[in-house]
């Protein structure tokens, strides 16, 4: 019995020793086999071929020098796909950059009041500071592919402007000798910058002479050997050729602080107590005297007037408000010829929805009249005005106005306000396109 028990113990010890030796061999000498679930993959640098390459690196086979990774091909395909996406995005960015509109920069130096009409009414720009008596005012606006910067005020003087572009628009007044002398000094200053190479392109917006006598400007035009590439000229000048000399609207009297009027439903739909209005200077031996005589023949109650014998350059706050109210409360605004047929009153009436009744007669001087008469810019844009050749036809016109219904008058006001907004947009596009062509798209 003891012998049997001892043999069993020896057998157990023998088995334990054999198992221990097998375990030691398995740990230290056997090749490791890792299951697919718990395997640890050693990171091997992947040879990623360029996008579009048809050649792929060969995968190591089982039993070769490298250890087999059953997901290696999927990983390489993923990297190739990622690189293709990055390359496609890079090409897309290049396409966007290539087709992105180029932005040009142009500075406008406003040294005449019509500069504010250009900036605030045509380009829809704002100025900082907003107070009109500030010594230095500036603003920036984008039109077309051009970024316009505007500078105005008494402190805007020669040699003290931040010249961050080589293209300049000068807004000048050539209305009288004193203004011409001042404008000439600015032109000489810009001419010096042009000769020095600091300025490459120059345009001028000019409030010209009411009789269209602007010969003093000729030597500065590039077509006459000067440096001014294009000219935007107020009034019906014979110089206008729609190429380098274009006609420009007179606009509202910004020097009298006439504001930017934002149209609203009240301007269109509110009944107006007056049939017509006129507020202005009545010159001796002018057609205005004829007009006023006719109004006094039974139209005083329906047409509101405020006249004076002498022209005044500035308005008081009270007279400006009175004028504003007269326009806003009248169906029609009478616009007689002065020294020129084009007047601020025409544009101011449009701003407030009062239809201009325009004396369609060319004034004496060198301005172009022709069969169509004066105001060719406004007529070319289809201005919905009432035109009279003779103020003696006014009573018949007013009699017809009496028969119009409120609905008809409201619809006409709406049409006038829409036309004037469209006219300013056309002028904005015309101004921008002309400068981009003259400054940046030669040929």
TrEMBL record:
Residues 106-249 form the RXYLT1 N-terminal domain. The keyword Repeat does not apply. Keywords: Membrane, Transmembrane, Transmembrane helix. The chain crosses the membrane at residues 7-28. Residues 255-440 form the RXYLT1 C-terminal domain. GO terms for cellular component: Golgi apparatus. GO terms for molecular function: ribitol beta-1,4-xylosyltransferase activity. One of its GO terms (biological process) is protein O-linked glycosylation via mannose. This is Ribitol xylosyltransferase 1. The lineage of its organism: Eukaryota, Metazoa, Chordata, Craniata, Vertebrata.
